[in-house]
Amino acid sequence: MGKRVKKTKAKNKDDEVWVTRSGMVLTEEIAEEWAEEIEQNPPDPSRLERRYVGRPSLGPNGLSPRVSFRIPPDLHKAAWARADKEGRSLSDLAREAFTRYMDS
């Protein structure tokens, strides 16, 4: 089935609308129909395709541990400026700096 929906932003929670990729507004009636369809004809788990979420791994075996640390605001601002100037992500810039440090 694989229907994707997204929520539109609204100031009032009652005004929120869910819309499919094709632009169809998801109403309570449609949601009930989909739920009933799944209950009556559940998908075969052996035929489902696994979807991976998040960024692709940087490691050879599907592993890329996360490193997190704090830096002063001025360094953070300078790093973002440098990344923007070079057209790179902040993560890419930090990986390069960390790699250079570890290699020296």
Quick summary:
The chain is mostly helical and 104 residues long. The protein has 3 helices and 3 strands, in the order βββααα.
Structural notes for this entry:
- With 104 residues, the chain is mainly α.
- Among the domains are: 5-43, no CATH class; 73-103, no CATH class.
- It contains three helices and three strands; from the N terminus they run βββααα.
- Helix 2 (73-86) packs across helix 3 (90-103).
- The relative contact order is 0.07.
- The mean pLDDT is 85.
Supply the key terms:
mainly alpha; 3-stranded antiparallel beta sheet; 8% strand
Summarize the amount of helix as a percent range: 25-40%
* Total beta strand runs: 3
**Overall form:** elongated
Distance between the termini: 53 Å
Strand content: 5-15%
Biggest sheet, in brief?
Answer: 3 strands, antiparallel
Question: Element order, helices and strands?
Answer: EEEHHH
What is the mean predicted local confidence, pLDDT?
85
Number of helical segments with 4 or more residues = 3
- Supply the helix-strand structural class: mainly alpha
Strand order of the largest sheet: 1-2-3
Low-confidence stretches: none
